[in-house]
Amino acid sequence: MYNNLCGIFLACCRVNAIVPFSTSVSSRMTSNNYKTAKTIYDFSANAINGGGLVQLEKYRGKVCLIVNVATKCGLTNVDYTQLVELHKKYVDQGFSVLAFPCNQFLSQEPGTEADIVKFVQGFGVEFDMFEKIDVNGDSAHPLWKWLKEQKGGFLGSASVNSVMASNDYKTAKTIYDFSADAINGGGLVQLEKYRGKVCLIVNVATK
């Protein structure tokens, strides 16, 4: 059902990380000391359209899908529809969608925050949305900078080792039967390491 959801990360965003945040931050974490952060709970972000500062500590213990979004992307309708479906299906099980509009990619989010709020009402959005932000460059939110430093081993190549060769993948029972090479010579990663975790696996592109 959610095979097009990757458009949020690729078509709309042209990036692979999943947590771009507002450029407004509390005193808990500034742009100069984001490297001291231990978790996302050390950060805060402003709710959309003047909704006030939100400490991300409020999401502790929940599974969070944190995305940057745009209203003018070719996959906007599909993305918002699927995000709404995900939210409705899993919100009572501790799942949260946190959406952050961004205009850095092909100017696909040109409107005001009031425009964005009006637009998403058409999809019945009830998940949390935050103010428009930058996710790249010097103006990127500290959390975004932090996450890009943390992502290391999550980008893998298509190659697999002897745990599961290309000719016998049909015998696999779970993703834990596979392994992949970490990017840029980072070594072989057994996907068994992710057992017990909620994993979002996407293919990405820089262009």
Automatic annotation (TrEMBL):
<dbReference type="GO" id="GO:0006979">
    <property type="term" value="P:response to oxidative stress"/>
</dbReference>
<comment type="similarity">
    <text>Belongs to the glutathione peroxidase family.</text>
</comment>
<dbReference type="InterPro" id="IPR029760">
    <property type="entry name" value="GPX_CS"/>
</dbReference>
<dbReference type="Pfam" id="PF00255">
    <property type="entry name" value="GSHPx"/>
</dbReference>
<dbReference type="GO" id="GO:0004601">
    <property type="term" value="F:peroxidase activity"/>
</dbReference>
<keyword id="KW-0575">Peroxidase</keyword>
<dbReference type="InterPro" id="IPR036249">
    <property type="entry name" value="Thioredoxin-like_sf"/>
</dbReference>
<keyword id="KW-0712">Selenocysteine</keyword>
<keyword id="KW-0560">Oxidoreductase</keyword>
<protein>
    <recommendedName>
        <fullName>Glutathione peroxidase</fullName>
    </recommendedName>
</protein>
<dbReference type="InterPro" id="IPR000889">
    <property type="entry name" value="Glutathione_peroxidase"/>
</dbReference>
<dbReference type="InterPro" id="IPR029759">
    <property type="entry name" value="GPX_AS"/>
</dbReference>
